[in-house]
Amino acid sequence: MTDRNLEEFQTFMIRFLREEFPEESGPLSDEELRDTIERHTEEARPYAIEDENALAKFIYLKWLLGEDFEDLPDRGWLMGLLEDRARPAIERMDVAVEGVEHQLENETPEPAS
To answer: 72-79 long-range contacts, Cβ below 8 Å, gap at least 24?
Structure first.
């Protein structure tokens, strides 16, 4: 990504994170969000996730599931998917987002005590 494309991508992601995760992103400045986006971009590189669409989905999963979503024991299938270089990055991330959203929709909430 060129510097200009990177800046545009970060601006897009800041807006997206503020819309999708208002409580989590609210206390953070744009600069702090930019730093988080840069960190997540670096964390995606070992999985060969570098194009903007796939990267946006990777960052979305980081915010949806947490910083270490790749290592969650109930989502071990994600690590295999992330490491599957035979599939294009966008395809892997589309499957990951769909799978996670399906899991979250079908999780049984804990009964209130």
So the answer is: 75/100, 75/103
Q: What are the residue ranges spanned by the domains of the chain?
A: 3-106
pLDDT band, very low/low/confident/very high, at 103 (cuts 50, 70, 90): confident
Listed residue (23, 55, 25, 54) closest to 39, CA to CA = 55
How remote is the C-alpha of 46 from its chain's centroid? 14
Instruction: State the pLDDT at residue 48.
Output: 95
Is the pLDDT at 75 greater than 80? The verdict is no
- Alpha-carbon span 37 to 19, nearest angstrom: 15
User: According to the model, what pLDDT value does residue 42 have?
Assistant: 94
